[in-house]
Write a structure and sequence with these properties.
heterodimer, A: about 900 residues, alpha+beta, 17 helices, elongated, B: about 525 residues
Amino acid sequence: MPTLSTDPLPLPPTLRPSSASSSSALHSSLSFLLRRSSPWLSRRRCPAVACSAPRSVAPRASRGSSSSSVIVGDLEPAADPGVAFDKTFPIQHSAKVEGKIFVRFDQQNGENWVLTVGCTVPGTWILHWGVSYVDDVGSEWDQPPTEMRPPGSIPIKDYAIETPLEKPSTMMDGADCYEVNICVQSNSSIAAINFVLKDEETGAWYQHRGRDFKVPLVNCVPDDGNVVGANRGIGLWTGALGQLSNILLKTEATQEKPESSSCLSSESEEVRCIEGFYEEILLVKEVPIQNSVNVSVRNSPDDTKTLVSLETDLPGDVIVHWGVCRDDSKTWEIPSAPQPAETIAFKNKALRTLLQPKQQGNGASGLFTVDKEYAGFLFVLKLKGDSWLNCMGNDFYVPLPSSATDNQGEARSEGSQGHGMMEDHKEVSTTVYTDEIIKEIRNLASDISSEKSRNAKTKEAQESILQEIEKLAAEAYSIFRSAAPTFTDEAPAPEESIPSNISSGTGTGYEILCQGFNWESHKSGRWYMELEGRASELSALGFTIIWLPPPTDSVSPEGYMPRDLYNLNSRYGTVDQLKVLVKKFHEVNIKVLGDVVLNHRCAQYKNSNGVWNIFGGKLNWDDRAVVADDPHFQGRGNKSSGDNFHAAPNIDHSQDFVRKDIKEWLCWLRDEIGYDGWRLDFVRGFWGGYVKDYLDASEPYFAVGEYWDSLSYTYGEVDHNQDAHRQRIIDWINATNGTAGAFDVTTKGVLHAALERCEYWRLSDQKGKPPGVVGWWPSRAVTFIENHDTGSTQGHWRFPSGKEMQGYAYILTHPGTPAVFYDHIFSHYQSEISSLISLRNRNRIHCRSTVKIVKAERDVYAAIVDEKVAVKIGPGHFEPAVGHQRWSVAIEGNDYKVWQAS
Amino acid sequence: MEVSVVGNSQAKAGLATSRAVLFRPRIGDSSTFSSKSRVFTGQSQGSKRGKGGRRLSSTPVRVEEVLRRSLLSPSDVESFRQPDKVRLWVGLPVDSVTDGKCVNHARAIVAGLKALKLLGIDGVEIPAWWGVVEKEGRGKYEWSGYLALAEMVCEAGLELHVTLCFHGYRKQQQPVIPLPDWVMRVGEDDSSSIFFTDRSGRQYKDCLSLAVDELPVLDGRTPMEVYRDFCESFKSSFSAYIGSSIMGVSMGLGPDGELRYPSLQGCESSQVERVGAGEFQCYDRNMLKLLKEAAEACGNPLWGLGGPHDASGYDKSPSSNRFFKDKGGSWESLYGEFFLTWYSNQLIRHGDRLLSLASSIFGDSGVTVSGKIPLAYSWNEIDSHPLELTAGYYSTVNRDGYEEMAKMFAKNSCMVMLPGMDIRDDSARQLLGQIRAACRKHQVRVSGENSLLEGDIEQVKDVCTADDIDSFFYQRMGACFFSPEHFPQFTAFVGSTKRPRPHPDDIPKEEEERAEESLALTSDSILQMQTA
C-alpha cells in the first residue's frame, strides 16, 4: 500500500525554478519537499530540513530587502492620500493539533485492573462506553455495574455510560492530557469493555477501525478486528463519526508498546487470560484559527508604478502566489520585473514570493511593485504543509488604480471606487467564507480541469480525495447502519434478529444439540459410564447441549414408560453414575437436558376394578391424576387437554396437585442431578400452557418439546404445502409462550420428500422461505433428521438412507437449533458433521440467522445464510453469485456443497 | 449550428448532436468535459457554466495528511482512464422523506452526497412519492421535505433527477409507502373498482388501474387530472431548481413505476428464483368494459367476456395450461391475437397519456422526461414469452412488442429507463438487447439501472461503455451501499466509467505521455467505430 512516505512523487518539471538563482532554487525545492509531505512526517523524518529552512532564508531576505524594492514596516493606513486601496481580509483556516488517544490496561493489585483511556489533544472529551457480559453472546453493549462507573458518569439509555475525561495531576509529555480510569474486577462476569471517544466541542466520535474500541477481558470474545491490545497492526477503515472533515486519525503511525503482561486463570468457567497493554493511536484535530491579511495599494513615489503591500499575522513561512490582470476577467499574468526577492515563476502564469517575517511579533509582509498598465492584483496564500488560503474559494483580488489616472485627484476617485467594489467583496466574505476542507477538495475534484487550478494535483491530490471519500463513506455507513428503524436496507427479520438473552426457548441462540443415546443404549446397563468417556469428544466436536435418555424407573427399559419419578436408577445406570455424568458434561461446557415424560405415567397399583391407575413412590397419586377420557384407565380427572397416549394412564395436568408435584420434581432434578433443561416427551398429550407453568417454575436453560404428528398427504403423496402441519407445532410453542422450542418435524418430513423424490423445489415454501417450522419461527425450531424413534433400531420414519449428510448440510447451515443424532455422530459421517459444526460456529450462524433461498428446483436447492454461508444440496448445479462477497468452497460432499464468504 | 436545439427537448435533434459531440477529441479540450447529455439541455448549460465558473478557484490542493491505509488503492485511481461516457446517478434512499416534512437520515445523506460528489458522480435520483406528498388530501401537497432534500443535493454540487412515484412501495409484501390515504379510501368502496384486478378478483393496491385514467373516480376528478395537478405542483414548488439542478424527471407509469401490468401481484417478493408467468390483470370492472367494447367492435362479442380462460396461474408453470403452450397454444389463435393486441395497446396508450402529460408540463423547461419499462425476461425460452405477455408487452418469439413502446417514447421525446442491467442471465441480456435495438431504431435515448447492489457489476461496466446508454442510475444509497464490502466495489466501478481529468498542465511528464497514448488509443477505436 503506497503512502506518502513510501511512494515519493517525482518533482513535476514545471516546478523547476527557472529564473531564480541556484541558492533559492535549492530552497524552493526544499520547501517543495516539505510541502509534499505531511507535517507529521516532515517533523519526524526530516527535522533538520524543517528547522534549517527558515534560517537559511533569513540572510538572503534581508539582503533582498536592502537591494531592491521590498520595504518592510513603513506602511501607512488609508488616511495617507497616496493610498488608493486599503483593506483587511479575514482569513479563517485551521491548524492541526496532534496528539494521541491512549488506552492502558494495568493490573493494580490482585483481581483489580484499571483501564485508562486518555487523550492528549485539547477538547471536551467524553468516554461513551458499555460492557458486554460473559453469558450474553449476542448483545454487545450493556450498562456496566454501578460500582464500575467513575464519578460524573451519566447513563445513556440502558446500554451505555458517558464519563467525561479529566485532567489528571500528572502531565504526559508535558502536554495537556485528559483521561478516565475504569476499575475492573478480573473475576467479574464482564467479557469486554466497549467504548468510543467523543469530542463534545466538535461533536466528533472516534472509533477504532470503524467500530467501537473493544477491550476483551475474556479470551473468547470474537475479534471483529476492533480489539485493542491485540498484537497486530492497525489500519483500515478508521472511520470516525460526526464532523470528520476536521478530524484526522493517523492510525498508520500507531505505536504498540505492550508494557506488561500477566496471565491469570480464575476459577470461573471461562478461561481468563488478561494481559495488560498500552496502546496509542495518533490523531490530529483541526482547530479553527482566525488570521487576516491586510492589503494596501498606493502609487510609487515617482508615480510610475503601483505599490501593493501585503501584511499578515499568519505565523511561519507564508508564500504569496500572485499575478496581475488587465481587466475584469481576472486572467492571471506575470508582471514584468522587478520582482521581490524570494520570487520564482510558477508555470509562466504566476509568481511565488516568500513573505518576509516581521521583525517584531508574528507575521510577515511583502511589497510588490506593479506597472500601471494592470487593473488588478491577484493572489492566494500558501502555508507550510500545502494549505492554501484564498478568499471564499476565489482568488484575492485587489483592484489597482488604472494607468489612465495619472493625476492624484482621479486616482483618489478611482480609489474610492475600488473601495466600493471591495465593500461588496467584504459582504460576500463574511457570509460565504467557510473554509471547509471538503469544499476545497470538492472544488478541486469538480474543477480539476480548470485553467486556474494549476497545482500539481496528480496522484497526491487524488489520494487525498480518495481518503476523503472513504471517510465520508464510512461516516454515511455508520449513520445509516445505526439509524432508527427504517427499511432502507435488509428488511427487519420477522422477529428479533440478534439473540439478546438466554431464554429457555433458545439457549444462547448458538446451541448445537446432541441426542446422546439411541434405542439400544439401555442394553449395556452402563450407558452413563460409556457416555462419560465420550464427553470430551462431544465437546470438541462443538456440541453445547446433550440430551440424555429418560432417567426414571420405567416399565419399559428405554425409559419412556415412567413409574416412580423419584427413582433414578434405570437401565442406563444408577443415580450416582448419572450425577457423575452430568458433572462431567458440565466440566466440558456442555449443558445437559433430561428427557422428562410428563404426559403419562405407569401406575403401580390397581384400583378396585382391577385397572392400573394408582401410583406409587413419593408421588402416590390416585385416579384423580388420570384423565377421564381414556376408558382403559378409568381416570377420575378432567378430560385430556391434548391427544391421548394409549399405552399408559395419561396425566391430568389440570389438577393443581399434579402440577405442584411435577414442578417440585423438575426442580429436584435441576438441583439434585444438575440437569440444565428438558427434552419434553409427547407434548401433544397436554396443553402447552402447562408446559409454560413447569418451565417457569424449573427455569431451564433450554427446553425442547416433541410435538410429532403426521404431515399432510394427498393420495399418499406428501403435500408441498405443510403449513397446517407446522402451524400445529407453532401453536404448541405459542401455548408455551415461547418458553420451549420444538423439534421441527415438518422440516424432516419435507427433507424426506425432497431427497427421496429428487424434488428439491419442496424446500422453498410459497413465500420463498424454508417450508418447516424453521421458516416461520426459526429461533424455536430444533431441527433434526433422525432420533431414537424415527431411526435407530426402531426405524419408524427413517431418513432417506445414504442422504443423511445432505440433511445435516441443511440443518447445520440453516437457522434453528440443530440436533445431531448419536448414531450419526459415531459413524463414518463424523468428520463431515464435525466440519459442518465448526463452519456453523466459525460463521456465528445462530437460531435466528437469515436465510435467503436462491434456488429451489427439481434437483438442487441453494440458500445463502446471513450472507456469509452458501449451501446447496442435491445433484444439480449451483454456484453462488459473485457479488460483494467472494465465496470459497468450505465443505464438499455427496450431493452437497458449502461455501463461505471471504 | 443547431441553435434551434437549445431549449427544445426533441430527442431526434438532440441525439444527432450528441453523436457529433461524442466524436470530438476528449483530452486537452476543456469543452468536451461536459458530457454528451448536456447538449440536450442546452438551455441550462449556460447556468451550469456560470456556476462552474464561480467554483473555478485557484486554491485547491489541500492535502489531507491522513496517513492510513486506503481502502481504495491508488490503482483504482490509475484505472480512471476511460473517456467520459455515461452520466452516473445514484438513487437516494427510498425513505429519504416519509412524512412530507423532514428528511430521514439527513446526516448520513449529507456525508454520502459529499462522497459521491468527490467521486465525480453527476447527480442523485430522488423518488418523490404520491403517497407522501399528497397524503393529506387531494391538492394538499407537502413538498417541504423534498425541497430540503433538494437543497442538500444542490449544496453538495450535485444534479437532481426526480422520480414522480404514482405507485406505492412495499417491502416483504408489507406496504411501507402506500398510495395517499384519500385514494385508498376511494378504493375501499368495491364499486369504485379503481385497482388492477386478476381473474380471482384479487386487487393490486399499489397503483391505479389504467382503465380509470380518464374516469372521474377520485372525488370527481380523473386520475389523469390528479397526476397533472401533482406534476404542476411539483414544477411550481421546484421552479428554482428545474432546468438548473433538476435536469430530469421520471414519470411513474405503473407498478414499481414501470410501464406494465402488475401481472405478478402477490408473487413479487417471492425469493424463489422462478415463479409462474403471472396472470392477466384485466378483470377490474372498467377494464372489462373496455374489453367488451373492443370485442364488440371487432364483431366477436363473446371475446369480451373476460381474459383468456386457459392462462396458467401465478404459481403454475406456463405450460401447465393451454394459453401459453409452445405449438398450438391459444396465444397463436385469432382470439389470442385479439386479446393480446388489446391488452398491450391499453398499456401503450396509458404510457402515452402520462408521458405526453409530462412532456407538456416539463418540455419547455429543459428537463428530460423519462419512463421506466420492465425487464420481463424469465420464461422467454417459451415461444409465447408468457411473462412479457401478462406484463402487457405483446412480444413473442415472432413479434417484437417493444417497437410500439419505443415509438410512443419517441413521440413524446422521452427517455427509456431500463432496469436489470446487472442481471447475469442470458435471456435477460437478450431482452435488453432487443429493447435497446428498438429504442435505437426510434432514436429513443436509454438510461440503465441496476436491480441489486449485489448484481453483476462487470456487466454494468460493459453496459456503461455502450454507445446507446445515456446515463446510468445506480440503486441505491443506504447502509449496504456504503458498507466496506460494497463501497470500494462501487468506486472501482465509477473509476472504470468516468473520471475527472486533470488539466494537462498538471499531469507530470510521464503521465502526460501516457494520457496521450490513451488518447491515441481512444481516437483510434472511435475511428474504427465510425468506419465499422
